[in-house]
Amino acid sequence: MDARFTEEQQEIRRTLRELTTKRCSPDDVKAAVRTPAGHDPALWSTLGVELGLPGLALPETRGGVGAGIVELALVEEELGRVLAPTPLFATSGLAAPLISALGTEEQQAGLLPRIAGGGLTAALAVPGTGLATALGLIADNAGDWAGGGRAGGVQATRQGDGWQLYGQAGQVLDGHSAGLLLVAAHTGGFARSRTLLFLVRDDAPGLVRTRQTTLDETRPQARIELRHVRAELLGEEGADVVGALAAAGDSVATLLAAEAVGAAGRALERTVEHVKQREQFGRPIGSFQAVKHRLADVYVQVQAARSAAYYAAWAASVPGGERVGGLALAQGLEALRTAAAEAVQLHGGIGFTWEHDAHLYLKRATGDELLFGPVHLLRARAAQAAELFAQAAEAGV
């Protein structure tokens, strides 16, 4: 195994580092999240149209670059460093892989080139708070998160030769601005209960989208209400939607892990810069042994999380490789939480203020754990998938 990045992969990192340094300062990020779209459209045009990042992991036959998850993970790491609010993760991390896995030839040909070119953004709408479960990250995906006939889900019924959706979904990442929604809905009643995915255009009659107030403003979310909305079935009716979602879960976790590592690394860098300058008792506080030890512990944790994220990306790109995205995500979120907490503490009084940027990293850590965790369930799910508990029981442990 050659763990070194290729020159092309290094160039992706250098290009994005230069771009985000110029256009994603903390003030730029705060201004972007307060726009109606929740992100900077000019920056998204650069990332999507000029650099073609949404098509990085899509095949060339669909208008993409033909790279893989390793390259996309490097992109997410760089965007995570500056907490850049963009529709890239929702579009290329969540929606595009599902369209590729389940869509008909006509659907893929009509949608994926537009996504790859940056002209179409997409979002995955899962009812309730079940996104992590739907992706198989914290529990077995049984499909009941889509409604199961109960109130609060999304129900799909046949209307002539088409489908109609009724219900709502909260916590839809970038759902307020996406040009296309992939909506998970329940159909078949009790006897033939199953979950399907449907395509809903942003201008569909009966569709109401409301941007939500969230803990982490850099990760915009929306509530989607569907009132007898006409929808197009994604793929065939007998498609294994639950299996496709679970299969996409490892890649999603890997990308999130890389993003968390980027944010954790930047939070640590900013803290180190601060303790070198802030003086107490006539000397920089960074010269005190206690501060050095605390930052050294954070550094080790961030580097370990970075290695885990890189390995998860490499393994996901290898046929038959281990699927360890959930473990990498757990380690990445833990590293980000620790780095952000230390940033707040070691910045002293200013670290607790809204005017400072340290709270943005703490909110990202907390928000992502609420959406895709918690950490202990990510690890428990990985242990369950590896049958560690069964092996321990057999060994009499």
From TrEMBL:
Highest taxon, organism lineage: Bacteria
Cofactors that this protein relies on: FAD
Domain Acyl-CoA dehydrogenase/oxidase C-terminal: 255-384
InterPro entries referenced in this protein's UniProt entry, alphabetically: Acyl-CoA_Oxase/DH_mid-dom_sf (IPR046373), AcylCo_DH-like_C (IPR036250), AcylCo_DH/oxidase_C (IPR009075), AcylCoA_DH/ox_N (IPR013786), AcylCoA_DH/ox_N_sf (IPR037069), AcylCoA_DH/oxidase_NM_dom_sf (IPR009100)
SUPFAM superfamilies: Acyl-CoA dehydrogenase C-terminal domain-like (SSF47203), Acyl-CoA dehydrogenase NM domain-like (SSF56645)
Oxidoreductase keyword on record: yes
Keywords (A to Z) from UniProt: FAD, Flavoprotein, Oxidoreductase
CDD domains noted in UniProt: ACAD
Pfam families attached to this UniProt entry: Acyl-CoA_dh_1, Acyl-CoA_dh_N
Positions in coiled-coil regions: none
Domain Acyl-CoA dehydrogenase/oxidase N-terminal: 6-118
Stated family: Belongs to the acyl-CoA dehydrogenase family.
Name this polypeptide is given: Acyl-CoA/acyl-ACP dehydrogenase
